[in-house]
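Data card: per-record layout.
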Amino acid sequence: MDASSEQPARRRRGLLIVLSSPSGAGKSTIARMLLEADGEVTMSVSATTRPRRPGEVEGVDYYFVDDAEFDRMIASGEFVEWAHVFGHRYGTPKAPVKAALRNGQDILFDIDWQGARQLEPDFGEHLVTVFLLPPSMAELEARLRTRGTDSSEVIEDRMRRAADEIDHWAEYEYVLVNRDMDACLARVQAIVMAERSKRVRQTDLVEFVRELIGPEH
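The structure for this 217-residue chain is written out next.
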């Protein structure tokens, strides 16, 4: 048995992990892989006005709401962030985010640069932002067509918007080129582990060190 596994985990602050990329560059796949590999990470569930796709589950993939309900949630201040994306609106409910942070839970956000920017004022100290770039625009288009979920018109629109989204890459702390899913996942995991280990995240470190070396130091 690993010696570290015998020691109780120390308390820490939760992270808000933002993964962004142009559509088709891999953020949803990397997000899913990270969730499967790391039990300390939970997915942020957004409310959306987008119609439900086959296989999507209410409350697991999204909270599906109409425009009137989305307007009410905005007016009530219930969102951490919200944005227009491809003709629909997406927003992150505030209450679950605050609860998870208090409990030291990491929350993963599959959002664009607009959403990431809105998180900064209230949650900047908790944010870890990662932008995924495609190897090339040709590869990006090939991935979109292989996915088979969008019409040619929608794919053409996504490609037109991709350059605008990529233009915001410098607003992120970490930028990765997603040439290989497994390699990209490993780099995201390394980022998360390093961020968890930062001194400011470990809420009981002062007490731990005092017990380690004695109060006289």
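Known properties of this structure: Residues 142 and 203 are 45 Å apart (CA to CA). The radius of gyration is 19 Å.

See the next section for split statistics.
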